[in-house]
Each structure stands twice: as structure tokens, then as C-alpha cells.
Amino acid sequence: MDTRTITTRSGDIAVADTAPGDGGRTAFFVHGVGTSSHLWRKVVAELSGERRCVAVDLPAHGGSPGRADYSLPAVAAAIEDARDALGLGAVDLVANDTGGAIAQVYAAAHPEHLRTLTLTNCDTQDNLPPEAFKPTADLAEQGLFAELAAAAGADPELGRPGIGAGYEHPEDIPLDTLRAYLGTAAGTPERAKEFERFIASLRAEDLRAAEPGLRKLDVPTLIVWGTGDDFFATSWAYWLRDTIPGVTEVVEVPGAKLFFPDERPGDLVPHLRRHWAAH
Question: What is the rounded average pLDDT of the residues 219-239?
């Protein structure tokens, strides 16, 4: 997907934005740490004839510049600023990985700006960072991650094992996808340092602080969860179901891993269509 940079009240941010679809409704997609809007390209390709699709590049990812504050509330505010700058009304928000944590914070703060919410495998409650990601988060906290990230940014093949942990078939990840992720997040030493700061800024307490708002959230919410994920156990999908009053359904995707929206878009798109049609 081609991206463009928009100016918002809190700074520039890159978005991939398709032409408006029928009915004027907009699907708004948020990725997580280490990927980019590229994650959603196959999902968007299937849906773009039906509705406007906007996929944002988080700060310090993809085409978006870095920022001073990478806390979950600050990044959720950046998402709100992008929605506002694009002149969108209430959106159908879809999120994955750390983007799901951001979406939870966003939903708790701005339920009026959501038509629906869809969460795929993501950080939940105090599972941030997840156990499998803690070694990376610890390196970022110690200021030791940027050099490793820059090496992968210069040669994305070095990052295949790390990104590949979120795929069933890491050997099949196209090189252009690795470049879209690592080549943009860590393509220069300066960029790698911002990427490191982003990871080091993620705090479980920021996500837990959104829980009171989630417990009042009546926005129609769909949970679609890959059961083969090494980062986010399926039990977290049911924690979300039991916490968010608006949850209408939990869909398990057998064997799917974290980045199944890229690897198995056909296991997400029909559920999105059904969820949106029902609400």
C-alpha cells in the first residue's frame, strides 16, 4: 500500500488511505511494534472496494517520524489526532499486537468515535510485554537494542527470526515485507534509537489504567484470536470477552500466530464483514 504523510495537531503521521467505499464508513487499522501499515495490505485489498480503509503507521514505524512520548496514552492520542485530521467520524477500529493495547486505551478514552471495535491477538491487562518479548524489552530498557535493530534494518534478513516468531511460516515472509517492517523502523541508527525508545516506553500500568473504561465499553466488539500464538495465549481473548460488555463474539483461528492478518487474511476478513454488517 502507498502511504502519505498527514499533518495533525500533535505531529506528522503516515497513513495508507483508500478511496471511500459504499455508505461512507471507514475501517481504521492499527499495527503493533516492529511492523507497519504494510501488515494490513491483504486485508485492505479485499475490503477497499466496500469501504474506505485507513491503515496508520505508528510513530517511529513505517513512514511516520518519531515523537517525544511513546507511552500508550500518547500513541492513542496520536491515533485520535490522525482520525480527526482526516475528517473521519466514528470508525470501525481493527488492531493487532501492540496496536491492540493502543486500541484498548483509545476505546476507553473515545468510545464515541467508534462504530465497532475488532481486536486480534494483542497485549491485554498486565501481559505487556508478553513473556516471549521480555528479553527484547529488557535490552531496550538497557539501551542495548538499537544496535541490533539497526543491523536488522540494514539487512532485513537478519530480522527474519524475530519477525518470523509471529508467523506460521517465517521462511515464506517476502523480503519486501521485512523491509517494510525493519527497514523503516530501524533503517538508520537514529531511527533504530527511536524504535528502542518506543519499546522501552510501553508500560503495563498504562494498559491497566484503561480497564475501568473497558468495563463500561458497550461498543460492539469482535475478538478474533489465533490459537498458535507464542506471545498472546487464547485465554486473553476470553479475558477481553469477560471485561468488555460490548463483546459480541470470540472467534478462534486454529493454529494461527500473531501476524495472521498478514499470513491468513481469509481468516479475518469474513468475520469483519459479518461484524460490521450486524452493527
Answer: 98
Tens of pLDDT, residues 24-50: 799 999 999 999 999 999 999 999 889
DSSP per position, 165-196: TT-S-GGG--HHHHIIIIIHHSSSHHHHHHHH
Predicted pLDDT at 147: 97
CB 107 within 8 A of CB 37: no
Q: What spatial distance separates the first Cα and last Cα of the chain, rounded to whole Å?
A: 28
Least confident window among 17-21, 38-42, 221-225: 17-21
Over 70: is that where the pLDDT of 22 sits? no
Residues in a beta bridge with 94? 29, 118
Q: Are 241 and 270 in contact (CB under 8 A)?
A: no
Split at pLDDT 50, 70, 90, the class of 203 is very high
Measured on CA atoms in the order 277, 266, 231, 149, is the torsion positive or negative? negative
| Contacts within 8 Å (CB) and 24+ apart, 143-149 | 143/196, 145/195, 145/196, 145/199, 146/186, 146/189, 146/192, 146/193, 146/195, 146/196, 147/192, 149/182, 149/185, 149/186, 149/192, 149/195, 149/196
Query: What phi and psi, each to the nearest 5 degrees, are found at residue 21?
Result: -100, -170
CA-CA-CA-CA torsion sign (124, 223, 36, 39): positive
- Provide the 10 A C-beta neighbour count for residue 212: 10
